[in-house]
Design a protein that fits this description.
heterodimer, A: 141 residues, alpha+beta, rod-shaped, B: alpha/beta, 60s Ribosomal Protein L30, Chain: A, 2 domains, six-stranded mixed beta sheet, 19% strand, elongated
Chain lengths: 141, 377
């Protein structure tokens, strides 16, 4: 009888710890997911401000035919479908795939300055995914 | 003073012509394969006279009092190899030189450079005993397979076989070639044929050609080239015509830039894969990134992909070009090992070109270090 009671207590303790752990793990995954959402926003902002994308990467070309000017730049915009995936590997417990779209924006003008002022017409050029690894504390690149 | 100006101007003009005129093939093409092997027949028949390029004027031969102006097929083969070596672009592929009948490895697969390859070519003997040394081509093919050379190479491999196909003993070499090619689908075989069906023996002794043997050799060479999805070229044409050498080299070794510049309809960028300094092996912690990419590619079985490696600006342009190519190939090897068909994949190293951020900062350089999977149409 005493052994059965000890067994039941043991089972309850194990069950409780299991619930606590699984809740903690579920929270961890949710936190990882939230961190990836923020990482994606920061990454796209980085591409548009520090990278070759965005208005600061604008270039102006002169037409050899009629002498008119075309201003161009590429822009990164968020797209749906980003997700994380658990890997089961200790060094890389999660990978995350983010999606974005690269738009090509153009404007025409009689002078380079006029072309730079716009308005710009933006059209989708390329769908892009980027796959990152999470090392347990942060997303790496 | 005026007299001195003209020679100076002429000097600089000629220097410019030399610089501009020396734009190499490398500037115009990428490597068409990852590895290539010259596979040269050294059997007895290859040390017989190659009448297709030897003196054919029987009167002149008689007048000179002997069998002059004769040149052995093997000597012609050696010259063709030297001529090709002079123009093969020094791109990022491995080259090898093997002989058969009997099998000899003169140069193991090594990153190609002209001086090393020239040194290996010089080791081919200019003369050997003819009698009793038949062409067991099948044995040569088996030995190439058993040597493990083909199995040890990754990516696409081109074999350029030099042979007259004659006096074959043993099993059917065409069947053996077929088995090898089925086992190694990434191998293409071109044949430089020394068979000379219909050519007369112009020697004074005039012992006569083995007409049936020459025709059979020509047929064997043709069938092997067809199986290997490669070209069949006449050795005499290559020996006599430098333009033919150039064409052959461009066709075999050069991937034209227009093929590389296909329209990219989608990109998948692989981030955070770090390689040890100057290395291209993939560590286990980075494999989940590649596994995710493999899943994506398996979900799109009809797409073709260019695996493009990029680096930051640290190091020379040439160093980064080679490094980025090696890393793209490391990813290619991983994908193939996970079941992605090699025929769907191409690799290219773009070095420090096309940065996505400024290389002036550590963060920007990290953003530029990447491997892209460019889905093309």
């Amino acid at each position: 009888m005493k052994n059965i009671k000890i067994l039941w207590v043991g089972l309850l303790v194990v069950g409780f710890l299991g619930c606590v752990c699984s809740v903690a793990q579920a929270m961890d995954e949710a936190q990882v997911e939230r961190s990836f959402v923020q990482f994606q926003k920061d990454w796209i902002k980085k591409l548009n401000t520090e990278g070759k994308y965005g208005e600061k990467g604008m270039r102006v070309e002169k037409s050899p035919i009629d002498g008119s000017f075309t201003a161009k730049y590429d822009e990164v915009r968020e797209a749906p479908g980003s997700h994380i995936k658990k890997t089961g590997q200790a060094a890389t417990p999660y990978v995350g795939t983010m999606h974005y779209e690269i738009y090509g924006c153009t404007a025409a003008g009689k002078t380079a300055e006029e072309a730079r002022r716009g308005p710009f017409n933006c059209a989708l050029q390329t769908d892009t995914s980027e796959i990152f690894r999470f090392n347990g504390t942060k997303w790496l690149y | 003073m005026k007299k001195a100006v003209f020679p100076v101007v002429l000097f600089f003009f000629m220097a410019m012509v030399m610089v501009l005129g020396s734009v190499s093939v490398e500037a115009k093409c990428g490597p068409k394969e990852d590895n290539w092997i010259f596979f040269v027949d050294q059997s007895g028949s290859m040390y017989m006279t190659y009448w297709k390029v030897s003196g054919t004027d029987s009167k002149a031969i008689k007048k000179k009092g002997g069998d002059t102006a004769k040149v052995a097929k093997e000597v012609v083969a050696k010259q063709i190899l030297m001529d090709m070596n002079a123009v093969i672009p020094e791109l990022n592929y491995k080259g090898a030189l093997d002989l058969f009948a009997p099998f000899e490895e003169l140069l193991t697969p090594t990153m190609y450079n002209r001086p090393s390859f020239a040194a290996a070519i010089k080791m081919i003997k200019d003369s050997q005993v003819i009698v009793g040394r038949e062409t067991p081509m099948t044995k040569g093919l088996i030995e190439l397979e058993q040597s493990g050379i083909l199995a040890g190479l990754t990516g696409k491999t081109t074999v350029i076989m030099f042979s007259d196909g004659m006096a074959n003993v043993g099993a059917d070499p065409v069947m053996e070639a077929k088995q090898i090619l089925e086992k190694h689908p990434n191998v293409v075989v071109h044949v430089v044929s020394f068979a000379q069906p219909g050519v007369k023996d112009m020697s004074i002794a005039g012992k006569g050609m083995d007409t049936a043997g020459e025709q059979k050799g020509a047929d064997i060479n043709r069938q092997i080239a067809q199986l290997g999805k490669g070209m069949l070229v006449d050795a005499a044409e290559l020996y006599r015509n430098p333009a033919a050498i150039q064409r052959f080299v461009m066709d075999v070794f050069c991937l034209e830039e227009r093929v590389v510049e296909q329209k990219v309809v989608e990109r998948i960028v692989l981030r955070g894969i770090q390689f040890d300094f100057d290395k291209s092996n993939i560590k286990p912690e980075f494999q989940p990134i590649l596994d995710e990419a493999v899943s994506t590619l398996k979900a799109k079985p009809d797409v073709k992909v260019v695996i493009a490696g990029y680096t930051d600006s640290i190091g020379t342009a040439q160093y980064n070009m080679v490094l980025s190519n090696q890393r793209a190939k490391a990813v290619y090897t991983y994908f193939v090992s996970k079941g992605i068909a090699a025929s769907r994949l191409q690799t290219v190293g773009n070095g420090m070109n096309d940065p996505v951020a400024s290389n002036a900062t550590a963060d920007g350089r990290a953003m530029n270090r990447r491997v892209e999977l460019q889905i093309v149409q």
